[in-house]
TrEMBL record:
Molecular-function annotations in GO: guanine phosphoribosyltransferase activity; hypoxanthine phosphoribosyltransferase activity; magnesium ion binding; nucleotide binding
Keywords: Cytoplasm, Glycosyltransferase, Magnesium, Metal-binding, Nucleotide-binding, Purine salvage, Transferase
UniProt keyword Transport, yes or no: no
Subcellular location field: Cytoplasm
Domain Phosphoribosyltransferase stretches: 14-160
GO biological process per UniProt: GMP salvage; guanine salvage; hypoxanthine metabolic process; IMP salvage; purine ribonucleoside salvage
Gene3D superfamilies: 3.40.50.2020
Protein name: Hypoxanthine phosphoribosyltransferase
Biochemical pathway: Purine metabolism; IMP biosynthesis via salvage pathway; IMP from hypoxanthine: step 1/1; Purine metabolism; GMP biosynthesis via salvage pathway; GMP from guanine: step 1/1
CC annotations in GO: cytosol
Amino acid sequence: MNHPDIKEVLYTEEEIKKVTQELGAVLTKEYEGKNPLVIGVLKGAIMFMTDLSRAMDCDLELDFMDVTSYGAAIESSGDVKILKDLDTSVEDRDLLIVEDIIDTGRTLSYLIDIFRYRKAKSIKIVTLLDKKERRAVDLEADYVGINVPNEFVVGYGLDYIEKYRNLPYIGVLKEEIYQ
Ligand SMILES: O=P(O)(O)OC[C@H]1O[C@H](OP(=O)(O)OP(=O)(O)O)[C@H](O)[C@@H]1O
Ligand code: HPA
Ligand SMILES: [Mg+2]
């Protein structure tokens, strides 16, 4: 049974799994022998990060950064804040940033500036979902799982006011929930 607040399921658990395995295979080839630092952007990326890293058959290290720009809104404020920084130095490391979704692009553009300043060797982005229509800054992911339509989606890590992250599928929320 789908959650009663969900209007429509866009991607099932099986579809997400397939896309993740495909990305994992590509990234295994890309990062073989490089011991990348795989950086999950909390909290949205948690589900994708744990599944994607297990689909990467090469040595790697995991770290997390917690940033937020949305608060309780469905629109990015553009004011990105670091709530938790990395434990690891990025200097001279190959970085793979893992995101659940790119929307305006502001969160990642902020992170990339920080990692460049901290002298990372290389920086690449993998995102499960890309909502290209909403881009407000010039930012492209290196690896995209699924291009999503311009709708507010939840599930598989994605929330609305911290809810729905645990849904195993990705769906569109009924308008009456956030209006
Ligand atoms: O491209 P943008 O417009 O910056 O939006 C994308 C970001 O917004 C969401 O995170 P959020 O800040 O809501 O925090 P969360 O990951 O804890 O849900 C999402 O997980 C991305 O990190
Ligand atoms: O569509 C979305 N859903 C949940 N969180 C988000 N953060 C940016 N876009 C979204
Ligand atoms: Mg996030």
